[in-house]
Structures are given as C-alpha cells and as structure tokens.
Amino acid sequence: MKKYINIQSCFLAAIASIVLITSSCKKEFLNVPPQAQQPAAAFWKTPLDAQKGVNAMYANLRSWNNVGFNAIAIESTGSDEADKGSTPVDATFFNLYDNFTVTATHGTLLDFWAGQYQNINLCNQVIDSIPQITMDQSLKARYIGEAKFVRAYSFFRLVRAYGNVPLRLHLPNNGSEYNIPQSDKATVYAQIEKDLTEAAAVLPASYPSTDLGRATKGAALGMHAKVAMYQKKWADVLSYTNLVMGMGYDLFPDFEKGFREANENNIESLFEVQAELLLGNAAASNSQYSQVQGVAGEMGWGFNTPSEALANAFEPGDPRRDATIIFRGETTPQGDVIPNTVVNERYNQKSYVPFSTRVSGFNEGAQQNFRVLRFADVLLMNAEAANELGNPTQALTSLNRVRKRARGTSTTILSDVTTTDQTALRNAIWKERQVELAMENDRYFDVIRQGRGAAVFGVKGWKANKNEVWPIPFTEIDLSAGLLKQNPGY
C-alpha cells in the first residue's frame, strides 16, 4: 500500500537507474555523462559497475538537498552567525527556521531528510551489492569502506537534525521492510561509530591524483572524533584526534586562500564534497553551494549571509574576519569590486568564487567544493578533549596552533591563550571554534551540543527541550501510518 512506501528509504528511483560516472584525472570521477543510465537489473555485475555505483554515491553529496537551501535552513539559519540574506520578500520560509516557528509540514524539512536517505540508499546499494561481484578483494573492501564513511556522515547529519531516525542499513527485500521505526539516538550513534571504525580499517591514508576527494582513513578518524565529541566521549575524541595529528595533515598557511578552488583538497582537508564546472556537461556541474550564497546580482543569490554578531565576534585585527566575510563596497583579494549597491551588507567568503569564472548556462560557482572537515577542526576538538580530561598543556598547544596560523607573522594580534583554568579555557576553545569554523554549517549544532542553545539562540525564539532538534517531516509520519513519532514540542 502506498502509505507504507516511506521516503526514508528513498531507493525507488535509484534502483530503477544508476548514474554512470567515469574516472580519469582530478575530479573527473564526478563527471556524469548526460543521459547515461542503466537498468538496475543489469547492474552490479562487474568491477566497472562497482566503480560507477561508488562514484554515484559521491556525486549525490553535491545535490540540492545536500548543499542547497535545505542544508542551509537546517544546519545554518538558526544560528547567530547567519542571516537569511537576499531581499526581505525572497524565500521568506527561511524566517521560520531563523525564529524557530517552523512546523512539521514545511517542505524543506522533508527535502533535507530525503537528501540524507538518498545518500544512505546509494551507500547501502554499494555495501549490499559489491560483495557479490568478482573483483580485486582490496578494492572491494575499499569501496565498501568509502560507502560506510558516507553513510556515517549522512546519519550524523540526520541524528543532529532530527534526533531519533530510522536506521536503514540494507536494501529492503520485501514490502514489510519498507516501513521501519525510528531508532533512538544512542543506537544511531553506535552504528555511525561502527561504520567509521570499519571504514578507517580499510581506507588508505591518501590517494593518487586520479582519486582525490575520496574518503580516506584520516577522514574516517576525524569524523569519528567529531561524532564522539557530540556524545562527550572525551577520551575517544582525544585518541582519534591524536591519530589524525600524526598522519601528516597540517594547517594550510594562508587561511583565505585555503578556500579557493586552486587549493581544494589541500594538506588541511580531511574531506570535501567535490564539485567542478565541466564544460559541455552542465548536468554534472550541478552544485549550487556557492550559487545560493554568492554576492546577489553579481555571482549568486545572496542567501545565508554572515550576521553582524559574527562580524563582531572576531578579535581586533583577526585576518579571518575579512577572509570569512565579503563586505559591501570592498575589493576581494581576487580583484572583484563589490558594489555599494548590492542588497546585503555581508556575504559568505568561504563559498566565494571569482566573478570572472562565470560561464553562461552553468550555475555560478559550480566548481566550489564544500569543506566538510578540516584539520583546524581536528586541532580544536583535540584541545577541547584535552581540556575536559584535565590536560591544559596539550589543550593550549592545539588551540594556539590554530591561532598561530591565523595571525601569520604578526606579533601584535591573536596572542597565545595562556589560561589553565578549565572553564576559562573551555570558553576560549568554544570562541575559537566560532571564528575559525564560521559559515561552515558547524555553529548551530556546535552550540546545542555545548548546552548553550537557550543562552545563545534564546533571543531568536529557541526553546530548551524542543529546539535541540527539528520536527520530523509530517509527510514521513503520514506515509509510515504513524509508525514514526514526532519530536516533543512539535
């Protein structure tokens, strides 16, 4: 019956056809040949099928539901660092997330939910189907590890956003498996950690240039640290971040340049959602991450703009302020003059792509990767874990390493933090996370997991024991015939 065909599974269209993706040089493993689809019945037979299925999984990460309006609404708009942007009458639904009046019937809730389960479905196809293919065993194990990493990442986004969610780990075998109940958060987190442990055991530390952007051991360990941090498993956070810190990652010397296209997948990057503007293939050049946040009227739509509160959060002289925020009337380091007539006072510089790269017929900034996890985040997680475990010396070393990169050669700004008081040092680390990771879809859930939602977001309407999570989409509850339960307060 239709009411049991729950969008949580999100597998019907994907089973009907698989996107075929080729692999050659940098990022070209994301190049989707137009109209290249193949019936699932004839798929999952050869090593090439396995490669294409894994590549399709990565390609979906840059879809609208993953990096467009839906991700912005769920992961950024409610925070104090971002405003709706654009004009007051454009996409007014963002205000529902900004003032916490959104209800379960709003479509963006459903679209973000669907986007994550689409990722999970593609991962489950890889995990369930590749074992039956005759192929190199080490490559088979690696592909499954990559799928477990992406599945863990998608479940992490779901559990942060909605709390208890259905834990779909396999393709349904029959109609009774379409509709499954929610698992509690602890169970979901346990599965995420299991996937990341298994991924880290088989993934390589690095790839040749032909495969840049795929999940690595460092990405799995770093993501595991973040998942552990949300559960306050401080010994695990410290252990995983220490491992990553010994793997050769480092801070990219120039903070601003680290977010430009020429420096994607650099020494600081643990994982990025890959995107590229592929001439002759607009269908594959589909990322709108930069477009929706670009300077309105110049290189995008002007949504998700940095707030005045964020602009004021940086210490005097901190170069990260100008590297994070494009201000009306400025000239960017790449030479673009931002007119004084643009609608918004500020724009996200981390998603910025120079105006000269615009190509007619393609999304503005389609080539801009989305940084999911950086080494700076690892260092700050290490600092927080060390402080919580009573080791201020290590906490200060990791924290000040981030600040040193930010100040560069200056001797007058961003001096080292020296306090060993646990509370004062905790606040300093949280402050550093705010400015270092600003506009990277981290701040909103970071504040909530710190237990400061009411203190920081209360002025916007945030309420404890309700707004820690968003409502479960009503359509999902309806299609489940009431098997899925709504979050408290909604």
Please give a structural write-up.
Helix 4 crosses helix 6 (about 105-130), helix 9 crosses helix 14 (about 375-390) and helix 15 packs parallel to helix 16 (about 420-435). The chain has a domain at about 10-200 and about 460-490: Serine Threonine Protein Phosphatase 5, Tetratricopeptide repeat. The longest helix has 26 residues, at about 135-160. The radius of gyration is 22 Å and the shape is globular. Helix content is about 45%, strand content about 5%. Mean pLDDT is about 90; it is low at about 1-25 and about 30-35. With about 500 residues, the chain is mainly alpha-helical.
What would the average pLDDT be, to the nearest integer?
Answer: 92
How many strands, what sense, and barrel or not for the largest sheet?
A: 2 strands, antiparallel
CATH topology of the domain at 8-202 and 460-490: Serine Threonine Protein Phosphatase 5, Tetratricopeptide repeat
- How many helical stretches? 19
Which structural class matches the secondary elements? Answer: mainly alpha
* Rg result: 22 Å
**SSE run:** HEEHHHEHHHEEHHHEHEHHEEEHHHHHH
Distance between the termini: 27 Å
Strand content: 5-15%
Short summary:
By secondary structure, the chain is mostly helical. It has helices at 12-16, 47-60, 64-67, 69-77, 94-98, 107-129, 137-162, 185-202, 217-230, 234-245, 289-293, 308-313, 319-324, 375-388, 392-407, 422-436, 443-449, 453-457, 474-479, and strands spanning 17-19, 37-39, 82-85, 165-166, 182-183, 269-273, 303-306, 325-327, 346-348, 370-374. Helix 4 packs across helix 6, helix 7 runs antiparallel to helix 8 (185-202) and helix 10 (234-245) packs across helix 14.
